[in-house]
UniProtKB/TrEMBL annotation, chains A, B:
Pfam families: Cupin_2 (PF07883). Gene3D superfamilies: Jelly Rolls. This is Cupin domain-containing protein. InterPro entries: Cupin_2, RmlC-like_jellyroll, RmlC_Cupin_sf. The lineage of its organism: Bacteria, Pseudomonadati, Pseudomonadota, Alphaproteobacteria, Sphingomonadales. It comes from Sphingomonas qomolangmaensis. Signal peptide: none annotated. CDD domains: cupin_reut_a1446 (cd06981). Residues 23-90 form the Cupin type-2 domain. SUPFAM superfamilies: RmlC-like cupins.
Amino acid sequence: MSDETFEALLQRRGVLIERIVSHGHVTPHDHPYQQPHDEWVMLLSGAARLLVEGEPERSLAPGDHMLIPGGARHWVTFTAPDEPTRWLAVHLLGAAG
Amino acid sequence: MSDETFEALLQRRGVLIERIVSHGHVTPHDHPYQQPHDEWVMLLSGAARLLVEGEPERSLAPGDHMLIPGGARHWVTFTAPDEPTRWLAVHLLGAAG
């Protein structure tokens, strides 16, 4: 499996935009993602499912987007095994809650 | 020609994320875009060319991205006539210059 890559596209005061490329990667159940700030994500290509604690699991197709609230544990539960899945993530560093 | 559409996807203090869908639209030469804040754009689908004053014209394919500095006049000089061109724009409202 190829590595999952994280590429910072823009860093400004209060905002970090990054592109993430996944190849079938999922988040281990006992190691969720969790960050103090709100994070907005859009799926650019491929396919994925995302689970945010306390919310229904979401299937994401290209163009779909959602907000991951600061502090919420979340897991990528699926990315396409046969094509790259590209995400755009906008970290709202000054806008938690 | 279909209308060009602007859809706000997220508004937070200091950040506005919007999706723009163009169908062959270009910016009239005598009516450039110009805003006081930095604006980061990524092409999501389709094809476009963007001219920022003082810089070489850029051709954009899906996944290409660039920063439009606050205050700079700019023009979309081409969008694909035969398919929708989708842009993601992140307006950095507190981060000009």
